[in-house]
Design a protein that fits this description.
This protein has 10 helices and 10 strands. Strands 1, 2, 3, 4, 5, 6, 7, 8, 9 and 10 form a 10-stranded mixed β-sheet that branches. The chain is globular, with a radius of gyration of 19 Å. With 281 residues, the protein is α/β, with parallel strands linked by helices. The chain starts with 8 loop residues before the first strand and ends in a 5-residue tail after the last helix.
Length: 281
Protein backbone atom coordinates (compact mmCIF):
# COMPACT_ATOMS: atom_id res chain seq x y z
CA UNK A 1 0.00 0.00 0.00
CA UNK A 2 1.04 3.58 -0.63
CA UNK A 3 -0.69 6.53 0.96
CA UNK A 4 -0.28 8.52 -2.24
CA UNK A 5 -2.66 6.22 -4.15
CA UNK A 6 -5.90 7.82 -5.34
CA UNK A 7 -8.97 6.33 -7.04
CA UNK A 8 -8.45 6.66 -10.79
CA UNK A 9 -10.88 7.19 -13.66
CA UNK A 10 -14.58 6.63 -13.19
CA UNK A 11 -15.87 4.32 -10.48
CA UNK A 12 -18.80 3.00 -8.50
CA UNK A 13 -19.79 2.49 -4.91
CA UNK A 14 -21.17 -1.02 -4.45
CA UNK A 15 -23.98 -1.32 -1.90
CA UNK A 16 -26.15 -4.43 -1.59
CA UNK A 17 -23.67 -6.51 -3.54
CA UNK A 18 -26.03 -9.48 -3.82
CA UNK A 19 -28.39 -7.31 -5.89
CA UNK A 20 -25.66 -5.89 -8.11
CA UNK A 21 -25.87 -7.81 -11.39
CA UNK A 22 -27.39 -10.73 -9.51
CA UNK A 23 -24.44 -10.89 -7.11
CA UNK A 24 -22.33 -12.45 -9.86
CA UNK A 25 -18.63 -11.46 -9.50
CA UNK A 26 -17.76 -12.38 -13.10
CA UNK A 27 -20.69 -10.38 -14.48
CA UNK A 28 -19.77 -7.29 -12.46
CA UNK A 29 -16.14 -7.54 -13.52
CA UNK A 30 -17.03 -8.05 -17.19
CA UNK A 31 -19.39 -5.05 -17.21
CA UNK A 32 -16.85 -2.88 -15.41
CA UNK A 33 -14.06 -3.89 -17.79
CA UNK A 34 -16.18 -3.26 -20.88
CA UNK A 35 -17.09 0.21 -19.59
CA UNK A 36 -13.53 1.19 -18.71
CA UNK A 37 -14.24 1.45 -14.99
CA UNK A 38 -11.09 2.35 -13.06
CA UNK A 39 -12.09 1.57 -9.48
CA UNK A 40 -14.77 -0.09 -7.36
CA UNK A 41 -15.60 0.59 -3.70
CA UNK A 42 -16.78 -2.56 -1.87
CA UNK A 43 -18.89 -2.41 1.30
CA UNK A 44 -16.54 -3.97 3.85
CA UNK A 45 -18.40 -2.84 6.98
CA UNK A 46 -21.17 -0.70 8.45
CA UNK A 47 -20.09 0.33 11.91
CA UNK A 48 -19.47 -2.94 13.76
CA UNK A 49 -21.13 -5.06 11.03
CA UNK A 50 -18.77 -7.03 8.79
CA UNK A 51 -18.96 -7.43 5.00
CA UNK A 52 -21.26 -10.46 5.29
CA UNK A 53 -23.66 -8.70 7.70
CA UNK A 54 -24.19 -5.38 5.92
CA UNK A 55 -27.37 -5.07 3.81
CA UNK A 56 -27.11 -7.58 0.98
CA UNK A 57 -23.62 -8.46 2.15
CA UNK A 58 -21.43 -11.37 1.07
CA UNK A 59 -17.91 -12.71 1.29
CA UNK A 60 -16.12 -10.27 -1.00
CA UNK A 61 -13.22 -12.58 -1.86
CA UNK A 62 -14.53 -13.68 -5.30
CA UNK A 63 -15.62 -10.15 -6.20
CA UNK A 64 -12.22 -8.62 -5.47
CA UNK A 65 -10.48 -11.49 -7.28
CA UNK A 66 -12.69 -10.96 -10.35
CA UNK A 67 -11.76 -7.28 -10.44
CA UNK A 68 -8.07 -8.01 -10.07
CA UNK A 69 -8.30 -10.46 -12.99
CA UNK A 70 -9.48 -7.67 -15.30
CA UNK A 71 -7.13 -4.99 -13.94
CA UNK A 72 -9.61 -2.90 -11.93
CA UNK A 73 -8.70 -1.53 -8.50
CA UNK A 74 -10.76 -2.49 -5.46
CA UNK A 75 -11.14 -0.30 -2.38
CA UNK A 76 -13.12 -0.92 0.79
CA UNK A 77 -15.68 1.49 2.25
CA UNK A 78 -17.83 1.72 5.34
CA UNK A 79 -19.70 4.10 7.64
CA UNK A 80 -18.44 4.99 11.12
CA UNK A 81 -20.49 5.73 14.24
CA UNK A 82 -19.79 7.45 17.54
CA UNK A 83 -20.85 4.50 19.70
CA UNK A 84 -19.12 1.75 17.72
CA UNK A 85 -16.04 3.51 16.34
CA UNK A 86 -13.61 0.95 17.80
CA UNK A 87 -15.50 -2.09 16.50
CA UNK A 88 -15.71 -0.35 13.13
CA UNK A 89 -11.92 -0.05 13.10
CA UNK A 90 -11.70 -3.76 13.86
CA UNK A 91 -13.84 -4.54 10.82
CA UNK A 92 -11.58 -2.42 8.58
CA UNK A 93 -8.43 -4.06 9.93
CA UNK A 94 -9.95 -7.52 9.47
CA UNK A 95 -11.02 -6.73 5.90
CA UNK A 96 -7.62 -5.37 4.91
CA UNK A 97 -5.93 -8.48 6.27
CA UNK A 98 -8.46 -10.79 4.64
CA UNK A 99 -8.31 -8.99 1.28
CA UNK A 100 -4.69 -7.94 0.58
CA UNK A 101 -5.72 -6.76 -2.90
CA UNK A 102 -7.77 -3.89 -1.47
CA UNK A 103 -5.94 -0.69 -2.38
CA UNK A 104 -7.27 1.43 0.49
CA UNK A 105 -10.28 2.57 2.51
CA UNK A 106 -13.08 5.12 2.01
CA UNK A 107 -14.30 6.31 5.42
CA UNK A 108 -17.94 7.41 5.36
CA UNK A 109 -18.43 9.97 8.15
CA UNK A 110 -21.83 11.60 8.44
CA UNK A 111 -24.48 12.49 11.06
CA UNK A 112 -23.85 9.49 13.41
CA UNK A 113 -20.40 10.83 14.31
CA UNK A 114 -21.14 14.55 14.38
CA UNK A 115 -20.11 16.31 17.59
CA UNK A 116 -17.67 13.53 18.47
CA UNK A 117 -14.11 14.82 18.01
CA UNK A 118 -12.65 12.54 20.69
CA UNK A 119 -14.12 9.44 19.06
CA UNK A 120 -13.01 10.58 15.60
CA UNK A 121 -9.46 11.17 16.83
CA UNK A 122 -9.34 7.79 18.58
CA UNK A 123 -10.72 6.08 15.47
CA UNK A 124 -8.05 7.60 13.24
CA UNK A 125 -5.28 6.84 15.73
CA UNK A 126 -6.33 3.19 15.86
CA UNK A 127 -6.52 2.86 12.08
CA UNK A 128 -3.14 4.48 11.62
CA UNK A 129 -1.55 2.31 14.33
CA UNK A 130 -2.63 -0.94 12.67
CA UNK A 131 -2.64 0.24 9.04
CA UNK A 132 0.00 2.98 8.84
CA UNK A 133 0.49 2.79 5.06
CA UNK A 134 -3.13 2.42 3.95
CA UNK A 135 -4.52 5.30 1.86
CA UNK A 136 -7.72 6.64 3.43
CA UNK A 137 -10.24 8.93 1.76
CA UNK A 138 -12.80 10.93 3.76
CA UNK A 139 -16.29 10.58 2.28
CA UNK A 140 -18.61 13.18 3.80
CA UNK A 141 -20.52 16.37 3.07
CA UNK A 142 -19.81 18.38 -0.08
CA UNK A 143 -19.84 21.76 1.71
CA UNK A 144 -18.07 21.55 5.10
CA UNK A 145 -19.18 25.04 6.13
CA UNK A 146 -22.74 23.75 6.52
CA UNK A 147 -21.60 20.95 8.87
CA UNK A 148 -19.18 22.49 11.36
CA UNK A 149 -20.02 19.84 13.99
CA UNK A 150 -18.44 17.06 11.93
CA UNK A 151 -14.89 16.43 13.29
CA UNK A 152 -13.22 17.55 10.07
CA UNK A 153 -9.85 18.32 11.65
CA UNK A 154 -9.61 15.01 13.49
CA UNK A 155 -10.44 13.00 10.38
CA UNK A 156 -8.49 15.02 7.83
CA UNK A 157 -5.30 15.18 9.90
CA UNK A 158 -4.80 11.47 9.22
CA UNK A 159 -6.69 10.99 5.94
CA UNK A 160 -4.92 11.19 2.60
CA UNK A 161 -7.57 12.66 0.33
CA UNK A 162 -11.05 14.15 0.34
CA UNK A 163 -13.80 12.35 -1.56
CA UNK A 164 -16.96 14.33 -0.71
CA UNK A 165 -20.48 13.29 -1.62
CA UNK A 166 -21.27 15.94 -4.23
CA UNK A 167 -24.98 15.17 -4.37
CA UNK A 168 -26.93 17.87 -6.20
CA UNK A 169 -30.22 16.47 -4.94
CA UNK A 170 -33.37 18.43 -5.95
CA UNK A 171 -31.39 20.58 -8.41
CA UNK A 172 -32.82 20.31 -11.92
CA UNK A 173 -30.37 22.51 -13.87
CA UNK A 174 -28.39 20.76 -16.59
CA UNK A 175 -25.22 22.30 -15.13
CA UNK A 176 -25.88 21.13 -11.56
CA UNK A 177 -23.35 18.28 -11.55
CA UNK A 178 -20.51 20.34 -13.01
CA UNK A 179 -21.22 23.46 -10.96
CA UNK A 180 -21.49 21.70 -7.62
CA UNK A 181 -18.34 19.69 -8.28
CA UNK A 182 -16.43 22.93 -8.85
CA UNK A 183 -18.05 24.60 -5.82
CA UNK A 184 -17.17 21.67 -3.56
CA UNK A 185 -13.58 21.65 -4.80
CA UNK A 186 -13.27 25.40 -4.23
CA UNK A 187 -14.36 24.99 -0.61
CA UNK A 188 -12.09 22.04 0.16
CA UNK A 189 -9.02 23.68 -1.40
CA UNK A 190 -9.17 26.37 1.31
CA UNK A 191 -9.13 23.86 4.16
CA UNK A 192 -6.04 22.95 6.16
CA UNK A 193 -4.37 20.69 5.33
CA UNK A 194 -5.06 20.87 1.60
CA UNK A 195 -5.60 17.28 0.45
CA UNK A 196 -6.02 15.72 -2.99
CA UNK A 197 -9.64 15.87 -4.12
CA UNK A 198 -11.78 13.11 -5.63
CA UNK A 199 -15.60 13.20 -5.64
CA UNK A 200 -18.77 11.10 -5.65
CA UNK A 201 -21.73 12.11 -7.82
CA UNK A 202 -25.48 11.53 -7.69
CA UNK A 203 -26.78 8.45 -9.49
CA UNK A 204 -29.86 7.62 -7.43
CA UNK A 205 -33.53 8.59 -7.09
CA UNK A 206 -34.74 10.54 -4.05
CA UNK A 207 -38.49 10.97 -3.77
CA UNK A 208 -39.65 12.58 -6.99
CA UNK A 209 -36.18 13.80 -7.95
CA UNK A 210 -33.56 12.04 -10.03
CA UNK A 211 -30.37 13.13 -11.77
CA UNK A 212 -30.42 13.50 -15.53
CA UNK A 213 -27.97 12.11 -18.08
CA UNK A 214 -26.91 15.70 -18.88
CA UNK A 215 -26.11 16.41 -15.24
CA UNK A 216 -24.05 13.23 -14.92
CA UNK A 217 -22.27 13.88 -18.23
CA UNK A 218 -21.43 17.37 -17.02
CA UNK A 219 -20.10 16.03 -13.71
CA UNK A 220 -17.81 13.61 -15.52
CA UNK A 221 -16.61 16.20 -18.04
CA UNK A 222 -15.94 18.72 -15.28
CA UNK A 223 -13.92 16.16 -13.31
CA UNK A 224 -11.66 15.56 -16.29
CA UNK A 225 -11.42 19.29 -17.03
CA UNK A 226 -10.30 19.95 -13.44
CA UNK A 227 -7.60 17.30 -13.74
CA UNK A 228 -8.98 15.09 -10.98
CA UNK A 229 -7.56 11.59 -10.73
CA UNK A 230 -11.10 10.27 -10.90
CA UNK A 231 -14.74 10.49 -9.81
CA UNK A 232 -17.33 7.89 -8.87
CA UNK A 233 -21.05 7.48 -8.28
CA UNK A 234 -23.52 6.27 -5.70
CA UNK A 235 -24.73 3.59 -6.37
CA UNK A 236 -24.36 0.82 -9.03
CA UNK A 237 -27.33 -1.52 -8.49
CA UNK A 238 -29.85 1.29 -7.88
CA UNK A 239 -28.70 3.25 -10.95
CA UNK A 240 -28.80 0.24 -13.25
CA UNK A 241 -32.24 -0.79 -11.99
CA UNK A 242 -34.04 2.57 -11.76
CA UNK A 243 -32.03 5.00 -13.92
CA UNK A 244 -30.87 3.07 -17.00
CA UNK A 245 -30.19 6.21 -19.07
CA UNK A 246 -27.99 7.63 -16.31
CA UNK A 247 -26.29 4.26 -15.91
CA UNK A 248 -25.53 4.08 -19.63
CA UNK A 249 -24.20 7.64 -19.63
CA UNK A 250 -21.70 6.75 -16.91
CA UNK A 251 -20.72 3.42 -18.43
CA UNK A 252 -20.25 4.91 -21.91
CA UNK A 253 -18.18 7.90 -20.79
CA UNK A 254 -14.52 7.51 -21.77
CA UNK A 255 -11.96 8.04 -19.02
CA UNK A 256 -8.74 6.17 -19.68
CA UNK A 257 -6.74 4.90 -16.73
CA UNK A 258 -3.06 3.99 -16.63
CA UNK A 259 -2.71 0.79 -14.57
CA UNK A 260 -0.69 1.15 -11.38
CA UNK A 261 2.72 -0.47 -11.74
CA UNK A 262 3.67 -2.82 -8.91
CA UNK A 263 6.66 -1.92 -6.79
CA UNK A 264 9.69 -3.91 -7.98
CA UNK A 265 11.23 -6.36 -5.54
CA UNK A 266 14.85 -6.01 -4.45
CA UNK A 267 16.12 -7.98 -7.45
CA UNK A 268 14.06 -5.81 -9.76
CA UNK A 269 15.44 -2.64 -8.20
CA UNK A 270 19.01 -3.89 -8.66
CA UNK A 271 18.30 -4.76 -12.32
CA UNK A 272 16.79 -1.31 -12.91
CA UNK A 273 19.80 0.40 -11.30
CA UNK A 274 22.20 -1.75 -13.32
CA UNK A 275 20.45 -0.92 -16.59
CA UNK A 276 20.44 2.80 -15.79
CA UNK A 277 24.18 2.93 -15.12
CA UNK A 278 26.11 1.16 -17.91
CA UNK A 279 29.31 2.81 -16.68
CA UNK A 280 29.25 0.37 -13.78
CA UNK A 281 29.67 -2.68 -16.01
Amino acid sequence: MSRTRLPKGKGWFIWVVTQTMGGNPAAIAAAAKAAGIGHIFWHIHDGYLSETRVPGGADLTPFIAAMKAVGIESWGWGAVYRTTWSQGCDRVIEAMRKHPDLVGYILDAEAPIKGSPAEAAALMNKLRYFLPNMPIGLSSYRFPRYHPDLPWAEFRSKCDFDIPQVYWEQNTADSAGANQLQASYDEFKNMTPKLPFVATGSAYKAGGWQPTPKQVQGFLEQGKKMGLSGVDFWVWYHTQLYLPEVYNTIMNFKWDVTPEQPEPDLEGKVDKLWAAHPELH
